[in-house]
């Protein structure tokens, strides 16, 4: 299989086109035009490939596409959008096997291409449970599991019970749309035991959307020992669940409040000084 740097070929053609059209477009117009030119390039016959970029990958088998992706990464040849789109369209099962590789770039690409396909969820959870899993990879995996949270629920519950990436499991469970008392109780208990994680765990209850959490949130927001950030997140969660908190609170001595208000004041000063300089 011949590896072709389609992006490099496009850059060459783009440089020629920009030279021929120098001064014709503004910078913003070029920014809007380049993606359109790239799309047109996908349907342009490339003699070196004997096909258009899109056609080159469309003619490959599923196995060849997966192999091409691996070789592009291993050999440092840029992975074009045309290869990614063909892989996304087909989602060959061979992509799942790439999740076992040690190359972070390859694994991240594979996760993004597989997406929230429940067939990959077992491998996703294996990744999260693996010792030394790259944190960026873990975050990418978490986003896909959140998108398919109802399919991920049982495995997330099992991982949570084993203490595997507790916060991540709570975040995934909070996105479940199918009501489940066991999930609700876990999110509620985690909130009650939150400590410094209170803002984040309040957001999990807000995301889950069960109004039964309102009394617990109302009790927490009424505490005198919460800081301004915690207050803001609790207030948001209460409102997200259909409640309302109107009791006046004074946070003028709170460090977070002063920092936030100070930043807003600085922004106002900058804007004001900018207006003066323009006058």
How would you characterize this protein structure?
By secondary structure, the protein is an all-alpha fold. Helix content is 67%, strand content 0%. It contains 16 helices and no strands. The protein has helices at residues 6-20, 27-41, 53-58, 62-74, 81-90, 94-97, 104-114, 121-129, 135-147, 149-162, 166-173, 181-192, 198-208, 214-221, 228-240, 255-278. Helix 9 packs across helix 10 (149-162), helix 12 (181-192) packs antiparallel against helix 13 (198-208) and helix 14 packs antiparallel against helix 15 (228-240). The relative contact order is 0.05.
Task: Name a few traits of the molecule.
mainly alpha; 279 residues; 67% helix; 0% strand
Amino-to-carboxy terminus distance? 63 Å
> Pairing-aware structural class of the strands and helices?
mainly alpha
Which oligomeric state applies?
single chain
User: Kindly state the mean pLDDT as a whole number?
Assistant: 92
- Rg value: 25 Å
